[in-house]
Amino acid sequence: MASPYARELEIAQLAVQRAAILTKRVFHEKAKGTVSKDDASPVTIGDFGAQALIIAALRANFPGDAIVAEEEAAQLRSDDKLREPIWGLVRDTKLEDDAAERLLGGGVKDVDDLLEVLDLGRSPGGRKGRVWTIDPIDGTKGFLRGGQYALALALLEDGDVKVGVLGCPNLPVDDEAPLAADIGANQTDAEGRGVIFSAVVGQGATSRPLGTGGLAQGKRIKMKEVTDMASASFCESVESCHSNQSEAAQIAQRLGITKPSVRMDSQAKYGSIARGAGDIYLRLPTSKTYQEKIWDHAAGDLIVREAGGQVTDTKGQRLDFGVGRTLATNSGVIAAPAAVHGRVLEVVQEVLGLK
Ligand SMILES: Nc1ncnc2c1ncn2[C@@H]1O[C@H](COP(=O)(O)OS(=O)(=O)O)[C@@H](OP(=O)(O)O)[C@H]1O
Ligand SMILES: [Mg+2]
Ligand SMILES: [Mg+2]
Ligand SMILES: [Mg+2]
């Protein structure tokens, strides 16, 4: 008998791999069709196109499942200058392996269908049933800067993450590659780069090269053991408005961490610590009102936990993906190897005045 969620995992990885062909095209284009959303954050033709391709694969394979996705069609309905290039990209992007492309099935029929497909991601989420959550480009600011970004897809069942997939086109394939050497403004998806991280609950976490056809062979990943805090380092957001970097510096000092933090956009942070290229992911709230979105964390949360890590918020509670489109009951994120998570949490709470 096939292992649980085998089909979901295969479709999810192929869907991410196909959508990454599209985002990589846009990544290398000068004009990325960038517009501002209502919250002033950027979105590009790559975000819309990748979301449409991923949802089309889910619609064809799991038609009864709900979908919570970051983007929606509203802005495209009134803007054909934006709509047309997205449709062109979606229409022309196929996996190079016919059998794999057939497995994904469906596709997007025309421009009207494109808008319809995008809006299938507007489910409110919640505690009941199967819900897929999609971040077509996580770290859009990183994507625009030429840095790290990720395509994130996860399946929740009754609020728990069962399958998580992260496509990271600009990370090195090699799990052993030192983290610090692989970030920065000029990383691209040149040869030797592009990795898919994946996990199924209870079955461990895996990395494999991000290809353009069928899936490459995967291998097990594990977090690095932290035996001495002085040799560990934090992995943090690039954008200082997404995570409080001065509090993180105080926490590092109290823990005896001497290395500078590695700053990296997107859930590539979760993937990097899960494969042992980094140690601890810290995301400290910068405002009392911002609620983290489930698509920014679901895949990464499972991948880190299945690689031997623990993921909680700054209150020490597990991330709760069953309360809707946001992590409304959580505050910040601490992801660390299970053996040191308790110590990191303790110091986070001291510095934030939570104890
Ligand atoms: N104020 C605030 N606080 C915390 N988080 C926020 C905030 N605003 C936005 N976001 C979300 O951050 C997502 C990207 O954050 P990252 O940590 O990946 O990268 S970064 O280094 O900060 O760019 C980013 O994901 P994308 O929109 O997919 O790029 C946002 O969902
Ligand atoms: Mg995101
Ligand atoms: Mg996004
Ligand atoms: Mg966004």
Keyword list:
355 residues; alpha+beta; Fructose-1,6-Bisphosphatase, Chain A, domain 1; D-Maltodextrin-Binding Protein, domain 2; seven-stranded mixed beta sheet; five-stranded mixed beta sheet; binds 3'-phosphate-adenosine-5'-phosphate sulfate; binds magnesium ion; EC 3.1.3.7; hydrolase
Please explain how this structure is put together.
The strands form three sheets. The chain has a seven-stranded mixed sheet, sandwiched between helices. A five-stranded mixed sheet has the order 11-10-12-14-13, sandwiched between helices. The protein has a two-stranded antiparallel sheet with strand order 1-2. The N and C termini lie far apart (49 Å). α8 (245-255) links the parallel β10 and β11. The longest helix is centred in the N-terminal third of the chain and has 22 residues, at 6-27. The model has no long low-confidence stretch (mean pLDDT 94). The protein has eleven helices and 14 strands. The chain is an alpha+beta fold and 355 residues long. Helices cover 34% and strands 20% of the residues. It has helices spanning 6-27, 45-61, 74-77, 80-92, 98-104, 111-119, 140-145, 245-255, 268-274, 298-306, 338-352, and strands spanning 35-36, 42-43, 66-69, 130-138, 150-157, 160-172, 193-200, 205-209, 219-221, 234-236, 262-263, 280-283, 309-312, 333-337. It folds into two domains: 6-221, Fructose-1,6-Bisphosphatase, subunit A, domain 1 (Fructose-1,6-Bisphosphatase, Chain A, domain 1), CATH 3.30.540.10; 229-352, D-Maltodextrin-Binding Protein, domain 2 (3-Layer(aba) Sandwich), CATH 3.40.190.80. Bound molecules: 3'-phosphate-adenosine-5'-phosphate sulfate (PPS) and magnesium ion (3 copies).
